[in-house]
Amino acid sequence: MALISEISATALRTPQLRFDSEYFLPDRIGAGALVDSFLRKTRLSSLCDKITQGSNPSFRDSGFPCLNGKNIRFGSASTGEPNYVSETEFFRLKPYRLRDGDIVITLKHATKIGRAWIIEDNPPRIFARNVGLIRLRRDTPLSAPSLLFYLWSDVGQKLLDRFSTGGTSGQITLATSYLRRMWVPLFREIDQRTLNGFFDIYQATIKRSNELYASAQRMLEEELGLGKIDLSHRVGYETRLSETLQARRCDSEFYRPKYQRVIDAVLKAKKVRIQRFVPIGQIISYLTNGHTPLHHDLGVGEIPFLTAEHVSDFRLDFGTDKRILRRHHETELARTRLRDGDVLVTIKGKVGNCAVVRDCPDAANINQDVALIRPRNGVHPYFFAAWFNSLIGKQLVEQRSTGGINPFLGLGNLRGMPFPVLEPREHSRIGDLVQESVENAYAAERQATNLLEQAKCRVEELIEQNTAA
């Protein structure tokens, strides 16, 4: 099925010199017309000290963080793992350091540009080339939260989509030249204070949610009564030939002494007796990973498609822009259809992030960078997730991963990862405690998300008033 719309020749005479059909989609033309009718407006460039694209640094596996487009979503500029640069590279790229109050926005992405957020409590970091910076003037008549919620409004997103170029053959790109020319409504001060209030309450609520998630991450170690674990690394160490034959690993990193110290610390837990360790393969009934349908544009489809960037410790982001078709979901990816109670683990890139599926949409699926696990009866899914997300679990994931800058946790290595066996009552008790903390964190997170949606709705009301006043 094809969709066809017509425009007049005069409509082609735009300052942007655009002839692509996407620019003239009816909803985007409507957004442009609405903006043209604003009674109080200004160009974004007039509000800013700087609007620029990020740098193109050389990355490494550790060092100073470099924000990338995958880190930005509505509600955060720290989703997932950033890239890293060396100290030398960081100081060389001094003009690209972020400040508190800066707005960052995705300029390049496979499926969606225009995701923006405000930098707060900023550690020293720079931003990559697929991210743009909007730095408001100190005397600007528009607050950062007001601008942010406008960018996320229905009108703002349609305008940003209209300004973008590219499509299925490559990444969608938003040029900063278009961003500078974007019309922005000037809201009254009383309305801006309301929007600022939404943002402040959101920040407090999401901080509480993050604290509860962090508590869940520490809970297993606290309930076991583990002391401080020595994770120092020696340059030289030895292992027995019998151990290499049993593990079937010949890389020296696998045998770092700290990994055995982690196991010993758990076996010596002070509060709960650990009976033994078993391979994870013995306590799960199902293990697989997904794949990406060949030649499919992930911007098209009805079914949410989760990748590693959508899985973090105890959290899943079903708000992904990536989609697959229902026929993919019901045929070639039928084995990875998600349901409540499933456990997901990232196996590529930032490996070992683990979350339990809850409040799953009617249909959702995963790609090849995420493993789907179904624990056996009697294994508490939240105890399972807590083991992966704990300090101990992350060390053991590191041990069993292969690769360097881009680690990979193969399904075979995942099956062999040690899992602690406790007395069933203690296992369930700890699992229930972790679940309670995660559910409280999730409730606070949902409350925070609702605040953002209310702020967006308020901006859209103000836009209507700005055109009808």
Largest sheet: 4 strands, antiparallel
End-to-end separation in angstroms reads 41 Å
The low-pLDDT segments are none
State the domain count: 2
Mean pLDDT over the residues: 90
Gross morphology is elongated
Strand content: 15-25%
Q: Could you tell me the number of beta strands? A: 22
What do we call the CATH topology of the largest domain? Adenine-n6-DNA-methyltransferase TaqI, Chain A, domain 2
**Based on the structure given, which CATH architecture of the largest domain is correct?**
Alpha-Beta Complex
CATH homologous superfamily placement of the largest domain:
DNA methylase specificity domains
SSE topology:
Elements: H1 26-36, E1 41-43, E2 48-53, E3 64-67, E4 83-85, H2 87-92, E5 103-106, E6 108-109, E7 116-118, E8 126-127, E9 131-136, H3 144-152, H4 154-163, E10 172-173, H5 176-181, E11 183-185, H6 189-224, H7 241-247, H8 257-267, E12 276-279, E13 284-289, E14 303-306, E15 311-312, E16 315-316, E17 323-324, H9 326-330, E18 343-346, E19 354-356, E20 365-366, E21 370-375, H10 381-389, H11 391-400, H12 411-415, E22 418-421, H13 424-468
Parallel strand pairs: 3-8, 14-20
Antiparallel strand pairs: 1-11, 2-9, 3-4, 5-7, 5-9, 6-10, 12-22, 13-21, 14-17, 15-16, 18-19, 18-21
Helix pairs in contact: 1-4, 3-6, 3-13, 6-10, 6-13, 8-11, 10-11, 10-13
Describe, in plain words, how this protein is organized in 3D.
There is one protein chain. The chain has 469 residues and is α+β, with helices and mostly antiparallel strands. It has two domains: 19-186, Adenine-n6-DNA-methyltransferase TaqI, Chain A, domain 2, CATH 3.90.220.20; 218-433, DNA methylase specificity domains (Adenine-n6-DNA-methyltransferase TaqI, Chain A, domain 2). The chain has helices at residues 26-36, 87-92, 144-152, 154-163, 176-181, 189-224, 241-247, 257-267, 326-330, 381-389, 391-400, 411-415, 424-468, and strands at 41-43, 48-53, 64-67, 83-85, 103-106, 108-109, 116-118, 126-127, 131-136, 172-173, 183-185, 276-279, 284-289, 303-306, 311-312, 315-316, 323-324, 343-346, 354-356, 365-366, 370-375, 418-421. A hairpin with a 2-residue loop joins β15 (311-312) and β16 (315-316). The mean pLDDT is 90.
